[in-house]
């Protein structure tokens, strides 16, 4: 991603993450606090932390249709990498951009020495879950909740 576009991407990503956290049940206040803290950890000084990279996902004409954020996971295992975020613009979904971005992300991680690549996906994101399963990703944990209102 062009470094000049990074600050706008960072704000967009923070807002999207907070929105997803609200959709998953957090209060707006907690979601914004959590998103702010998470982005501050991952992007100290407003730039990607060590090993992290954000790629634009582009169409055949070179127009950005989304992004992929990839880097080492938070464990002590240097070979364990993580897809921190992938977003394809809503009007461009279903055209193979996400699949292509994931495949290229896997190749990039492998070239950096990764032996595993993980990710998290919100339960309500059934389209993404289907994509990841079709690419061979396996469920390693499930977080559940019941509203008691």
List its salient traits.
149 residues, alpha+beta, four-stranded mixed sheet, 4 helices, 38% helix, 19% strand, acyltransferase, GNAT family N-acetyltransferase, Acyl_CoA_acyltransferase, transferase
Task: Give structural notes.
The protein has helices spanning 6-23, 28-42, 97-111, 126-134, and strands at residues 53-58, 64-72, 80-88, 116-119. The chain has a four-stranded mixed beta sheet, covered by helices on one side. It is built from four helices and four strands; from the N terminus they run H-H-E-E-E-H-E-H. The model has no long low-confidence stretch (mean pLDDT 90). The longest helix has 18 residues, at 6-23. Helix 1 (6-23) runs antiparallel to helix 2. The protein is globular. By secondary structure, it is an alpha+beta fold.
Task: Give the percentage of residues in beta strands.
Answer: 15-25%
Overall geometric form: globular
Mean pLDDT: 90
What does the radius of gyration come to? 16 Å
The succession of helices and strands, N to C, reads: HHEEEHEH
- Broad structural category: alpha+beta
Keywords: Acyltransferase, Transferase
InterPro entries: Acyl_CoA_acyltransferase, Bact_Acetyltransf, GNAT_dom
Protein name: GNAT family N-acetyltransferase
Organism: Streptomyces yunnanensis
